[in-house]
Every structure is written in structure tokens, then in C-alpha cells.
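thread: overnight batch results

M.L. [08:02]
morning all. the overnight job finished for the chain we discussed friday. pasting input first so we're all looking at the same thing
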Amino acid sequence: MDIGPTELLIILVIVVILFGSGRIAKLGGELGHGLREFRKGLSGEDEAPSGMLPATTKPTADSAAKTDAATKS
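M.L. [08:03]
and the structure it wrote out:
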């Protein structure tokens, strides 16, 4: 029971009819992006060098007020 080129063509036509060509292109792009991110994660390219800490943001007045209110109660 091999799947031949005729069967593959029929399956492709059914998929295009169900999802539309634009949606298939979008899904293919998202799949490629996900694979690239996965490979980056495996190779460790996203990690910061050992001597560097991640950048932090300055606290805003609102967050400082909430922190003070939480510690006083």
C-alpha cells in the first residue's frame, strides 16, 4: 500500500479546498519560524554570556507605590 503521486495530488487538492492557499502559506511560515526558534534553543544561541546579567527596567512610580503598599499591610 504505497501512496503514489495521484493520491498525494488528491490530498493536496482537498487540503487547499478546506483551508485555502493563503492559510496554508501562513501555516508554513509559522512552522518554519518555530523550527528556527527550536534550533536556536537547542544550540544555545539565545543564552547570555556567562559574565553578563540580563537587562532590567527601572521601576515606575506606580510599581514602587504598589510595592510599598504591599509591604506595609
